[in-house]
UniProtKB/TrEMBL annotation:
Molecular function in Gene Ontology: homoserine transmembrane transporter activity
Main location: membrane
Alphabetic keyword roster: Cell membrane, Membrane, Transmembrane, Transmembrane helix
Originating species: Cohaesibacter gelatinilyticus
Protein name per the record: Threonine/homoserine/homoserine lactone efflux protein
Cellular component GO terms, alphabetical: plasma membrane
Transmembrane portions of the chain: 6-24, 36-60, 66-84, 104-129, 141-169, 181-200
Membrane-related topology note: Multi-pass membrane protein
Length: 203
């Protein structure tokens, strides 16, 4: 059971998604230090969804179309805002000018909001975690807490790996304006497409 959980969790965590793209973008634009804040925010953004799954609140999100779509459209709006802010160079991902500008707290908060405004995460954990809790477990609540902690730790380590690698690449491209402009447009387009995809996804 543990092997299956670790393998499945690793596949889920390493797969490119909004959080991964955000951490890589921060690492490429501002270095490994800023990507640590981004990874921390994204990791803590998972916590409310896991808590909801453990307490059964995610079931309410699943059954309430109004609540689900409210969270979903807030998430879409935030992704579109990120796409716009990257092009305007006034958000957490900034490819031009001083790489140290921008608050690390703000960078972490953006990562937190990216994940907390994705309603599908609650539904995912509602379906994911119980599969790895043995039916004969004397403390299913404690077991789910343990699995949640392992998943979050894995998320942080993998995201930091992405961020450090992106920071390393940044040292080789920061003096090449043409590449930075291309990257800025690419990450802006990525968040725009993620927002559009979320808008057209069903439950």
């Amino acid at each position: 059971m543990w092997v299956e959980f670790l393998m499945t969790s690793f596949i889920v965590v390493i797969a490119p998604g909004t959080g991964v793209i955000y951490v890589i973008g921060v690492g490429l634009s501002r270095g490994a230090g800023a990507s640590l804040a981004a990874a921390t925010g994204c990791t803590f953004g998972i916590l409310p969804h896991m808590t909801a799954a453990i307490l059964g609140l995610a079931a309410l999100l699943h059954t309430s179309a109004l609540l689900f779509h409210a969270v979903k459209w807030f998430g879409i709006a935030y992704l579109l805002y990120l796409a716009w802010s990257i092009m305007k160079e006034d958000g957490p991902i900034q490819f031009e000018g001083d790489a140290d500008k921008g608050s690390l707290v703000g960078t972490a908060l953006t990562g937190f909001l990216i994940n907390i405004l994705n309603p599908k995460l609650s539904l995912f954990f509602l379906a994911f975690l119980p599969q790895f809790v043995p039916a004969q477990s004397s403390s299913p609540f404690g077991q789910m807490l343990l699995l949640s902690g392992i998943f979050m730790a894995m998320t942080f380590v993998v995201f930091m790996g992405y961020g450090v690698f992106a920071g390393y690449i940044r040292t080789h491209i920061e003096q090449r304006p043409a590449i930075l402009v291309w990257m800025k447009r690419s990450f802006s387009a990525a968040f725009l497409l993620l927002g559009i995809r979320l808008a057209f996804e069903g439950r």
